[in-house]
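=== RUN LOG ===
request id: a7f3
mode: sequence -> structure
chains: 1
length: 242
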Amino acid sequence: MSLKPPKEMEGVLLVDKPPGLTSHDVVYRLRRKLSMQRIGHAGTLDPMATGLLVMLIGKATRISQYLISLDKGYLAEATLGVTTNSQDADGEVMETRPVPPLTEAQVRAAMAGYLGDQYQTPPMFSAIKIGGVPLYKKAREGEEVPREPRFIRVTAFELLSFTPPTLTFRLDCTKGTYVRTIAADLGEKLGCGAHLSALRRTASGKFTLAQCTPLDEIEALPLPEIEKRLIPVHAAAPSVAL
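=== RESULT ===
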């Protein structure tokens, strides 16, 4: 009698990504924990960012494109007066400028201009490939290349606090939106430049941060407990036929 191989896990796992890891780092650690290769994610987070990372386990990788296309929600912090080459805190400081005596009303008025449909030029420090080479590799070599603007939609851009030189905000947007580019552009609009100093993804479609489990906790769980946390494919993407 031949023994059947153990059934491979299948479903969507919602992970709270810690800072300092790439999205692929999370994939690698889950592959090691679950002893399986068929694991992916539905939308990257930059290393400095934290929060909701939608992980696809086993056959759930088939619904990747559907889940990547979902709208996203973020909580973020921007620091005014300091620009970096990557538009976030991981980059090199390019310029320091004084922050004008801004009021909350002035900041809110500037933010209101970002609501709605628009085109956004991706930053050089991004994983977008041109000629098969990621832009960030060209950027590290000091090369600047033309980038095609991309359509995005911002449905919410709300100021939560303003204590110069930092401001915190909530942003709801379509996939592919670079929050750090919005922060940098807002800084220019306010006359002093800015960079994104913190970012936390709070939502992706109907998935929320409240449903997530921190990565280190997942790694400490026995496999049956991890399996209990998997969202079935039919529940994660009911309109997608596999």
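=== NOTES ===
The first strand starts at residue 11 and ends at 17.
The CA atoms of residues 16 and 52 lie 5 Å apart.
=== END ===
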